[in-house]
């Protein structure tokens, strides 16, 4: 679940020296790029993004791949990915498992500390990561800027995240997480519509549309 949300944010491996492995300061150049991404995202009224998700082992061998879609509006969101749907209307979250035909219902964290797709595309990085700019490169014919992120919380399951930001549009192009176990998982944004104009009902789970669904209410 957390990995899925973190999808909208991170990408690409580089070698780092001992000092880089434990940074304690942030790079102003990286902050400028990340701030531009955050500012651009805030102009979208109801963004929808299609993404691809790939998991690799430590040797770089692909283990699995999936495709998905996320729709957002204000503090609401819906995620759809191969047998799973996540709904949130800002107050309640529904996690639907198609294979089990089961939905788990939870209240949204009132403290506002819970991770959401929206937070991952605004200013999350100032508190949760140290960041560094690694320069420009070409990716699929586009000029992208690589940002290296190191989590401030050393208990995270990953130790590095690499973002590729489309220089021309100030939007996330792709991201790669490096797990402490050696595994890697990558999210690539394949398309982005800044004004999907989703209706509020899209973000609410309607059990009438899922015959026989088992509801597990944890509120």
List the helices and strands and how they pair.
Elements: H1 2-6, H2 18-21, H3 28-41, E1 48-56, E2 62-73, E3 76-81, E4 84-88, E5 92-97, E6 102-107, H4 117-120, H5 125-128, E7 129-139, E8 142-151, E9 158-166, E10 171-179, E11 184-193, E12 214-217
CATH topology: outer membrane lipoprotein receptor (LolB), chain A
- Determine the fraction of residues in helical runs and give it as a percent range: 10-25%
Total count of domains? 1
How much strand? 35-45%
| SS-derived structural category | mainly beta
Quick one: CATH class?
Mainly Beta
Shape: globular
CATH architectural name: Clam
Brief overview, please?
The chain has helices at 2-6, 18-21, 28-41, 117-120, 125-128, and strands at 48-56, 62-73, 76-81, 84-88, 92-97, 102-107, 129-139, 142-151, 158-166, 171-179, 184-193, 214-217. The longest helix has 14 residues, at 28-41. Helix content is 14%, strand content 44%.
């Amino acid at each position: 679940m957390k990995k899925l949300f973190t999808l909208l944010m991170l990408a690409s491996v580089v070698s780092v020296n001992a000092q880089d492995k434990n940074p304690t300061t942030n790079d102003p150049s990286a902050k400028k790029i990340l701030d531009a991404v955050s500012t651009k995202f805030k102009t979208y009224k109801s963004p929808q993004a299609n993404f691809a998700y790939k998991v690799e082992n430590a040797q770089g061998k692909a283990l699995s791949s999936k495709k998905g879609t996320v729709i957002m509006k204000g503090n609401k969101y819906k995620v759809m990915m191969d047998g799973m749907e996540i709904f949130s209307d800002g107050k309640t979250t529904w996690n639907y498992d198609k294979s089990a035909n089961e939905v788990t219902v939870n209240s949204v964290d009132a403290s506002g500390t819970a991770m959401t797709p929206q937070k991952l595309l605004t200013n999350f990085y100032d508190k949760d990561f140290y960041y560094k700019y690694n320069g420009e490169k070409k990716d699929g014919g586009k000029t992208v800027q690589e940002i290296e992120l190191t989590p401030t919380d050393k208990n995270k399951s990953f130790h590095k995240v690499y973002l590729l930001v489309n220089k021309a549009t100030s939007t996330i192009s792709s991201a790669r997480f490096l797990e402490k176990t050696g595994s890697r998982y990558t999210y690539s944004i394949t398309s982005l519509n800044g004004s999907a104009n989703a209706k509020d009902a899209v973000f609410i789970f309607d059990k009438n549309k899922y015959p026989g669904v088992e509801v597990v209410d944890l509120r």
